[in-house]
Amino acid sequence: MDSKQRKDFWDTLCSLEGYDIQNDSKLLMNKVVFPHYLYRYRDVTFRAVSETQ
């Protein structure tokens, strides 16, 4: 998410009153922009390298 999308998400989050949880959830899910790729970083240790082989 870029800064404009984060601000839009934050403004939406702050505007929710909490009376209609299902509608609030739908509004937030429409504002979320999921990344195309997710990465998992691991420590470089002998054990981590030997487990991948």
Structure description:
The chain is mainly alpha-helical. It has one domain (3-51). It contains 3 helices and no strands. The chain has helices spanning 3-15, 21-31, 46-51. It starts with a helix and ends with a helix. The model has no long low-confidence stretch (mean pLDDT 85).
Fold blueprint:
Elements: H1 3-15, H2 21-31, H3 46-51
Helix pairs in contact: 1-2
Radius of gyration: 19 Å
As residue ranges, the low-confidence spans are: none
Principal-axis shape = elongated
Intertermini distance: 34 Å
What's the mean pLDDT score?
85
Tally of helical segments: 3
Major β-sheet, in short?
none
Per DSSP E runs of 2 or more residues, the count of β-strands stands at: 0
What proportion strand? Answer: under 5%
Helical content stands at 55-70%
Alpha-beta content class: mainly alpha
Tell me the series of helices and strands, N- to C-terminal: HHH
Give the domain tally. 1
Q: Care to give the gist of this entry?
A:
The protein has 53 residues and is mostly helical. The chain contains 3 helices and no strands.
Salient structural properties:
mainly alpha; 57% helix; elongated
